[in-house]
Amino acid sequence: MTTRLREGNTAASAVQVIAVHLTGLKNVINSATGGSAYENAMMAIDLYIKWAANAESVFRHIFEDHEIADGLYSERYWRLQEMTTTARLPWVILLSEIEFQERRLAEISTGLELQIRLANQRGAPIFLDTNFFLHFKQVQDITPDQWRQITTSKAAEFRLIVHAQVVRELDTKQHGAPKSKVPERAKRTAKFLDKKLPEAIKPEGAEVRDGVRLYILLDESDHQRQASGDVEIINGILQYARATDTAPVVVTNDVIMRADCAVRGIRAVIPAEEFRE
C-alpha cells in the first residue's frame, strides 16, 4: 500500500480528485488568452498559483502523506511567485512546472489505481500476526469453513494478509533457542511465504487453497519504520482499511496486539484452542 489516505477517503475518490486537478492544470494554459505574450504568461502564472493553493487545501484533507501537498511548492513555483512582467522566459518556467506536476500527480494516481485493484479483490480481509504463525495451524491447512468459524464471518472467500513487519519478525524468530519449537515454525512459515511471494505481492494475491488467497503487504521504498512492530502492523491495517473501504479482522492470541487493536477500533479475534499447534 502506498499512498496514505485520511479517514473518510477512498482510493477511488482520491483518483477522481486528482483527475479534476489535472484538468485544472490544462485550463491554466487554455484560459490565458487575449493579451500580449507577456500578459498572457503573467495571467497563466496567476492562475497556476491559485490552482496550487486550491490543490494544497484539497490534498491536505485527503492525503496523510504531507509530501503530496508539499510537492506543489517546488523551486520553480517560488520563481513563478516572484516573477514580474520583465521576467525572461516565463512560459518556459511555467510549462516546465506544469509538466512536472502533471507527471507527479499521474504517478500518484497510478498508485491509487493499484489500491483500487486491491479493493476489488474477492475475499474478506484477515490480517495474521506473528503470534498466529508461531502457535497455530499452518494457513494452508485451514479451510474456508474454519476461517468462518475463527472470524465469525459469513464470507464465501477469504484474503489472508501478512504485513511486512510480520515477515521481518518471522525472520528474526528463525534464530531463536534451538530447543524451542518457535525457530522451526518460523523457518517453515518463512519458506511458505517465500514460495508464494511472486504472486502474493500482486493485488490478486496467491492462491492458498480454494476460497483462500494470500497477500503480502510490503513497505514502500520511502517508508519510515515505527519504533514498535505492533504500531507498524496496526498502521498498515488502518491504511489498508481506508484504501479498500473494508473492515479487516486481526487474528492473534497476543494480548498487547489485541489491546492496541481495540484502542484503534480494529476487531481482533482469538483462534479457538482446536487450531493451536
Would you give an account of this structure?
There is one protein chain. The chain has eleven helices and six strands. By secondary structure, the chain is α/β, with parallel strands linked by helices. The chain has a six-stranded mixed sheet with strand order 3-4-2-1-5-6, sandwiched between helices. A hairpin with a 2-residue loop joins β3 and β4 (212-217).
Topology:
Blueprint (H helix, E strand, L loop, with lengths): L10 H20 L6 H26 L3 H5 L4 H7 L8 H30 L4 E5 L1 H6 L8 H8 L6 E6 H10 L7 H20 L5 E4 L2 E6 L11 H16 L4 E3 L3 H9 L3 E3 L8
Parallel strand pairs: 1-2, 1-5, 2-4, 5-6
Antiparallel strand pairs: 3-4
Helix pairs in contact: 1-2, 1-5, 2-5, 4-5, 8-9, 8-10
Descriptive key words:
single chain, elongated, 10% strand, alpha/beta, 277 residues, 6 strands
